[in-house]
Amino acid sequence: MKRDMDLVRLILLRVEEQDPNSSSYESIAIDGYSAGEIREHVKLLKNAGMVDDVHHDMDGHVWIRSITWDGYDYLDKVRDNTIWKKTKDAIKDKGLPLIFDTIKTISSAFITAAAEGVANSIIKNGGQI
User: Fold this and answer.
1) Cβ contacts of 106 within 8 Å, gap of 6 or more
2) With the CA atoms of 7, 9, 12 and 17 taken in that order, what torsion angle do they form, in degrees rounded to the nearest 10?
3) Taking 90 as the threshold, does the pLDDT of residue 85 lie above it?
4) CATH number of the domain located at residue range(s) 5-74 in this protein
């Protein structure tokens, strides 16, 4: 199995959608991915310290009760579809590895550039947004 960073992102987004006040959680299912692929990627997320409190049943279903601080930091960098696409395209164009550190660095650069553009615009407009 190859690691699929699109699936990693989708799993984190799905877990974030869960109601934290619910006493029950649904197993993670994502269109286009098998239960085995999801289960293996959840293991990768757990080993990377991105999620916590992972459970699975005898049928191979898996669910996650919480995302860690590091998981949320990563997710905040790749949540936006436009940033995610730009990040993946930049990494591919430069022949870089599609790994957490590279993704975080490139997505942070896009976010920083956007924030600097907003800040410059505010300055030009005398503090008005």
Assistant:
1) 87, 90, 91, 96
2) -100
3) yes
4) 1.10.10
- At residue 23, does pLDDT exceed 70? no
Query: Can you tell me the distance from the alpha carbon of 67 to that of 10, in angstroms, rounded to the nearest whole number?
Result: 13
Whole-number pLDDT of residue 42? 95
Number of alpha carbons in the 13 Å side-chain half-sphere of residue 28? 31
Q: CA 50 to CA 48: how far, in whole Å?
A: 6
Enter the pTM of the model: 0.84
For the cut 70, the answer to whether the pLDDT of residue 71 exceeds it is: yes
Q: Is there a contact between 71 and 44 (Cβ–Cβ < 8 Å)? A: no
Residue 28 tokens read as: 């993670």
Distance CA 81, CA 6 (A): 11
Written as six digits, the tokens of 54 are 């992972």
